[in-house]
Each structure stands twice: as C-alpha cells, then as structure tokens.
Amino acid sequence: MRIEDYQTIRFQRRGRALYVIFNQPDSRNAFAAQSHTELSHVFETAALDAESDIVVVTGEGHSFSAGGNVPAMRANHESPELMYAAVREAKRVVRSMLECDKPIVAKINGDSIGLGATVALLADVAIATNTSRIADPHNAVALIAGDGGSVIWPQLIGFGRARHYLLTGDRITGSEAANIGLIYKSVEAAELDATVDAYVDRLLELPARSLRWTKETYTLPLKQLATLMMDTGMAYEAVSAATQDHLEAITAFEQKRKPRFNTQA
C-alpha cells in the first residue's frame, strides 16, 4: 500500500523519521476490518519509504491502541472466512515488524491492550507514559494470545513473569513495565513528546546502515521464534474464536455483564 492509500492510519514526517499514527481515537484506536488490514501492511510501507530511516508508531488521542474490536470479534466468530483473513493479517503484522530493517520506536501515549500491546512490544524501543496501561487480556474474551503476545512477552521479561501476565491478562502501568524491563522507559505524560523526539534525534545522528544491520542481527532469533510459534498460536486463536465461550464473552460485553464461561475443558 502507498502512504496516500491509508484511511485509518495517518503519517507525519519529522526529518528522516516517519511517524505512523493510528488515527481512530473515537474507538481508542482498536483494530477491526480496514484498520486491521492497514496495520498488516503499514510496516512494509514504512520499510520501503525512501525518505525515512526511523519509524515511530503511536496512537491519536489518549490511547495507543485498545486492541481488538468487539463487533469485529462477533463477525469473525460468525464467519470462518473473515477469521481466516484476520489470522493471515495478524501473522503479517508480526512478520512485517520483524522484517522492517528500520528501527521502530513505540511512543505509548496511553492504553496498549491485546494486539496493541503486541505492536508496542515488538518495536525496537518502547517509551510510555507512567500511567499508560499495557496488557494482553486475550483469555478474558476466551481467546489465546496467539497474535504475537506469546512470542514477545517471555523474551522481554522472562517466562516467570510473562506466563502470569499472559494467563491472567493483568494490566501493568508504564512505570511498572519499565521497572521490570517490559519497555525501555516511562516518563510523565507531559514529557513524552520531547523524550521520544530526543531519542529519535539521537538515532538519526548514527549511521543508518549500521543501525539497520544491527537490528537485522539481534532480530534474527525473534524471526526464528515467530516462525516456530505463529502458525500454531494463530491456529489455536482461530479455534478459540469459534467457541461458545468466546461468543459468551462477546455477548457479556455487549450486555455489560460478567461472562459466564464453561470453566471445564
């Protein structure tokens, strides 16, 4: 896709930095249908952009991304074809972020949930506000964390902590995330713009080629791990999307009540 083709993502240039901005603040930048499709292409577009050497990803408004969209979840539950398309796109999101040879900086300006958290954590450097919330609550809607969360969380904070957060979906603040090494740094909200811009400027002062080759080198194990895990993870996510428990989670959300899951396997 060309930059001018995007409808739910806007772009901004600052020198040789390309800012990728999720632009659906009314839905807290949740991903559904068109925005999910555009997400699956945007890092390929950024990688091919001849006018930039650094990519910054952030969200418009007060959220980075709320992750999944409940109407889209219902549509995927009811249509295997739509779910298959979503699976294919989810794998492309992870692959394209790892294949993008330009350093990606995540500017976490607010809640980063589910797929939103996966995107933020797959970035090379993540800087958040202290009060941003990061979580992967797939199990809360009877899905498995197959869209990349199971790949990246353990690599950042180790299996001991990652297993807890992936199983429970507990939310962690930006300051807590920085303290345990889930992200690079957290700052006060008023300082986020200046902090990220200064960090990007620092990277832009370094040789673009060596930065790219450094990323290619340290990303290699993640690429191999993603290749090993994503097909299985997304297959399980597709199966879980077709279950009655997932439908119950969707219905409970729509009815503003607590879901009543079948807790036996």
Furnish the topology, listing elements before pairings:
Blueprint: E1 9-14, E2 17-22, H1 34-48, E3 54-59, E4 63-65, H2 70-78, H3 80-99, E5 104-108, E6 111-113, H4 115-122, E7 125-129, E8 133-135, H5 149-168, E9 172-173, H6 174-180, E10 185-187, H7 192-204, H8 208-241, H9 244-254
Parallel strand pairs: 2-3, 3-5, 4-6, 5-7, 6-8, 7-10
Antiparallel strand pairs: 1-2, 8-9
Domain count, please report it: 1
Largest sheet: 6 strands, mixed
Portion in beta strands? 15-25%
Helix run count: 9
N-to-C SSE string, H for helix and E for strand: EEHEEHHEEHEEHEHEHHH
Distance between the termini: 43 Å
- Which structural class do you get from the secondary structure elements? alpha/beta
Broad shape = globular
Helix content percent band:
40-55%
CATH architecture: Alpha-Beta Complex
Radius of gyration from CA coordinates:
18 Å
CATH class term: Alpha Beta
How confident is the prediction overall: mean pLDDT? 96
Protein name: Enoyl-CoA hydratase
GO molecular function: catalytic activity
Organism: Tardibacter chloracetimidivorans
Family: Belongs to the enoyl-CoA hydratase/isomerase family.
Word description of this protein:
It is a single chain. The protein is of the alpha/beta class and 265 residues long. The chain has one domain: 2-enoyl-CoA Hydratase, Chain A, domain 1, CATH 3.90.226. Helices cover 52% and strands 16% of the residues. The protein has 9 helices and 10 strands. It has helices at 34-48, 70-78, 80-99, 115-122, 149-168, 174-180, 192-204, 208-241, 244-254, and strands spanning 9-14, 17-22, 54-59, 63-65, 104-108, 111-113, 125-129, 133-135, 172-173, 185-187. The strands form 2 sheets. It has a 6-stranded mixed β-sheet with strand order 1-2-3-5-7-10, sandwiched between helices. Strands 4-6-8-9 form a 4-stranded mixed β-sheet. A hairpin with a 2-residue loop joins β1 and β2 (17-22). The longest helix is centred in the last third of the chain and has 34 residues, at 208-241. The mean pLDDT is 96. It comes from Tardibacter chloracetimidivorans. This is Enoyl-CoA hydratase. It holds the Pfam family ECH_1. Belongs to the enoyl-CoA hydratase/isomerase family. One of its GO terms (molecular function) is catalytic activity.
